[in-house]
Amino acid sequence: xxxxxxxxxxxxxxxxxxxxxxxxxxxxxxxxxxxxxxxxxxxxxxxxxxxxxxxxxxxxxxxxxxxxxxxxxxxxxxxxxxxxxxxxxxxxxxxxxxxxxxxxxxxxxxxxxxxxxxxxxxxxxxxxxxxxxxxxxxxxxxxxxxxxxxxxxxxxxxxxxxxxxxxxxxxxxxxxxxxxxxxxxxxxxxxxxxxxxxxxxxxxxxxxxxxxxxxxxxxxxxxxxxxxxxxxxxxxxxxxxxxxxxxxxxxxxxxxxxx
Length: 259
Description:
Distance between the termini: 23 Å
Structural class: mainly alpha
Low-confidence stretches: none
Radius of gyration: 19 Å
Helix content: over 70%
Order of helices and strands: HHHHHHHHHHH
Largest sheet: none
Number of helices: 11
Strand content: under 5%
Mean pLDDT: 83
């Protein structure tokens, strides 16, 4: 990556971050929804942690990854929305007339989405601490949770940007984020895998990469440094990033060639 790419990426990332800061209502609703998940699920479902399958785990620590992943996906989805907005107001087309690196045009909003996600996840973890969550791996483990959230957000940002560049339509880009729901709920969202009774839901949870994101975070929060459980989360992130960022790069190439 040349110096021009780094410089252009920095300039476009800074512009996107300033845009997010000036429009806090872009991320506040997603943040509130994620906090809502944390408070309501812990208040309403914490009693099931008495079941033997939970092995004495704290339900707040069990449900915290759901709230964090919700924020990650929502925050990353903002990257695609930012590109659609630039396309609709003509900024994207004017940008193509400049010598700015085409790669930086894609990376700018993705990095801004990561910045938004970082702030959201830190706030959610702070709220969880206030509610009494404990981490089996301490502060370092919370750092790993943050890293996993950013990695998963990066994967979803690639998908969101790819959809935005391919469709160049706000409604279509927004509709593309509906994949959020099956990813979240066809998984071990509320109970451990062993307590899922439906056969088809077990299959869905097994092939759903979000399951491995949840389990890697829960390993850090509840079980400690269980290498393979944590590693599976990072493997899922690497595969998802490879697919979605390749999709974004392909869509960007098409968009640039069309002008």
